[in-house]
# Entry
Amino acid sequence: MEKYWQIEKMNLKYHVPFHVLACVLLLAVSPLLMGTENLPAADTAKVLEYYVALMGIVMAPPIFLPEQNRDIRELVFAKYTDSAAVYLARLLGNMLILGVLLGVYLWTLKNNRCEFPAVRYYFGVFAEMLFLGGLGLFFYGVSDNYVLGYMVPVIYYLIALGSGEKYLKLFYPFSMSAERYAEKIYLFAAAVVLTAGGVYFRCRSHGGICCCSRPRIRS
Amino acid sequence: MFGQLFISECRQLTRSIIYWLSILALAFTFVAQLGGAEIMAEPKKGQAEYGYKQSDDQDVIMRMTLGHLLEEYSWRSYTTYPVGFYKSVTLSEEEEARIGEIIEETTGLSGTDQVEKKISAWYSAQTGGGEDGPADMAKPMEIEPAAGLDFARFEMLMDKADHILGGGSSYAKEYRGSNAKVPMTYEDAMDAYRELVEKDSLTGGYARLFSDYMVIFLGILPVFLAVSRGLKDRRAGMQDLIYTRQCPSAVIIPGRYLAMVVMLVIPVLVISVFPLLGCLKYASAAGISADVFAYVKYTFGWLLPTVMAVTAVGMVLTELTGTVIAVLVQGAWWFISVFAGTGRIEGGMYGWNLIPRHNTELNWKGYHENFPQLASNRIFYACFAIVLVACATFIYSQKRKGRYRLSWKNTGRSKK
# Structure
């Protein structure tokens, strides 16, 4: 346990402070951009699903970032601790931060006299965050391309904003605004699969599909 | 040297997954949003309806603005755009009471019950008395102003209501006119159609609509390409090798930049061929003289400055920091621009938005009257992009000379 706590400490100290700051800023400026007081449930869902959930895109991809350099990655992968465990420790840490930030934000909305089912919305938005983040992690893990880890969830978000409901169906991320919740369960399931897939590909190919073309040392 | 580098950069982009994903996203947007769109046919006499237009009759403005206020009062939710963003405002009891007083003075209705009865009566009358009629298809709510209410007093009270709502509501001076949407007559519809086929040569209006959808994606996608390209040399371990080459920074960076912009504009031009062919087919059947180059003009005039600015932001921030911070910065700018344009999608109010909106093939008048505003906007972003590229070139040259080595990680370690 001590080992994983050390991993998370390093993560918090060197790798995610900027991302956490970006998330805090995102939440802090929200009252300037949209209503955050006296909102009924549907409008609260809009704020959470369209805006707050974007934190998932910011916080998930950095878990692979410290080993972006191939030499460092090979060194880390040669260690006794399984690299998948390292990634999962970082992922849990980042998700915990997201969970706390989301909780604080929902508490603020409640204090601002917004009416909504807090627990239901908390898990609904968290599922969306995990999905958007998982999408980024999966494509980052498969391609070993950090930028792609941001690009794919952003495109998904754009498509959802446009004609999303028609094409995304069960994976439509803004369902709570339309007073539906079933999609959140599918999003959560997909998030688990995508995250596991991303970590698997990252560990399996030592850096994604791109690495397959690298010359291998023959024994 | 520049030409050679440009071609080499274009080749590299064709091998980039980011580039192909960008094209896929643009193609998807086109198919999803405009793929099934039909060309507006000439209005025929005796049609059930011809759409709506904005009225400048003071009585109509009063009736419709007050009707809208009654509806929002009954919903206890008001839509505003205080700083250009959509904001749903729910008032406190005290503020709600003040809106109630304004309603009483302007319409004579007192309390929520009377308001709800009035709204219910309006929609019942619209739907033939049935409770479950198609309210969405009914005329927007209107109400006769209270006896003796003149337009000056009405304006004062609406300003007060807007103030209570925090500004940017439908009752603000600049938005009041847009409440007064009245059904178009056959003559109005013909005028709008004539504008489309004569003033806009048909393709002009559809090219604006095409640009409106494309600019949303082009307000963010280029940054991924720029960041990815900016980080590529270092990842591939080629940075130091390139630094030592004789090729000047003023060739490398502008060459890369131009390659990215050109390679992003080409797919847009290719996609635009499909709606253009649809327009030309319709135009030849209807005997309309269409402008074949409209899509090219709008791609360069409307979309190119956005592509230039976004690419330049990605490039300069990546050179400056060596991180993907440009994605977050541009993401924030995109979000603000898109939501700032939400209340202005019908065109004619372009302002200084990076993503100017005009979500209709009509409203040539709005476009024409505000063209200087739009042109200033587009020229500003094109110039802004050139300045940023110059900055990126300067940063790159300093890095080559070893005078600038800032990256977030280096800074962190140097403090130890």
